[in-house]
Amino acid sequence: MWYLWLVVSGTLGTRLRSLGDWFTLRSTLGSARAQLPSGDQLAGRAFDQARLLREVASQVANPPDELPPGRRPAVLLSLYRDAIYWTLAADLADAPHELPQAPPEQLPELEALWQRSPAERLLRAARTEEALAAIRRAVVDVPGHPPLDISDAEAARVRDFADRLYTELEAPRRQVHRIVARRWLHWATVVAVALAIALVARAVAVGPDLAKGKPFRTSSTQPGCAENEHCAALMFHTTQEDNPWVEIDLGAVKPVHLIEVSNRPDCCQDRAIPLVAEVSKDRAKWTEMGRRDEDFTTWTLEAKPTPARYVRLRAPRATTLHLQEVVVR
Question: pLDDT digits over 264-274, tens only?
Fold first, then answer.
């Protein structure tokens, strides 16, 4: 018996841990984050530098203000070349046998990084052998500063190459972001399901709206109400009179324990004050369930269940009565 209990409890515990891991994505996220270098490692610092250079290049290419005169393609090419350098350095720093952890000032030049980088990765970023050869001539084979006569098209080709190299390097970080987003989605789904269950439970607990679709009558009707959009949007609108009321026929005697009254939303809410809620089985004898003496937008009246077929809301004074909605449960 004890052995069976241990087996069952162990199996259940394993399944619960697996379910919890699926929900929180703890193992998946941990594995993805383990592939990322920390900010104080060479790969992390090189990645940050490449990202910074790309942002600076974007600001130069699309400046918020007018820049001084000069050959902008040459400036951009210099920034793209530095971005390529740090992208390759970040990639190779992830493989210690390729690029040992060393201070940035001791890193090899761009040509040496280019030679150590996987040829297929460079080709993927360039798309074609011809483009790769042209990019190498522009960023590796030209010593010193880029020539001032570099064209916009040449600078754009190097930019696209640098962007694709960076995008491939950034893939593990994007994977972490996607996993985090999935985990938030799991939590949001649980919250949404819990909220839906709570709403359904509340609806079951309070019961259906007994007044929905049921006929009602009023002590009077405001002339021309149907032609006025504000008036027509209301449940009803009486004329100015003494003791105006609205009466809802539930169709049969039912236990009534809650009445929710929504006042007119656009104006004149004080006209419904005071407001008396009454119920009756036969329209001959009425029982008061509650009274409201203060202004309200929504009034919820709860009481012990009372058998009633008719529900009446009455303003015991000279006034005009108009309400947006009445719910009976």
Answer: 999 999 999 99
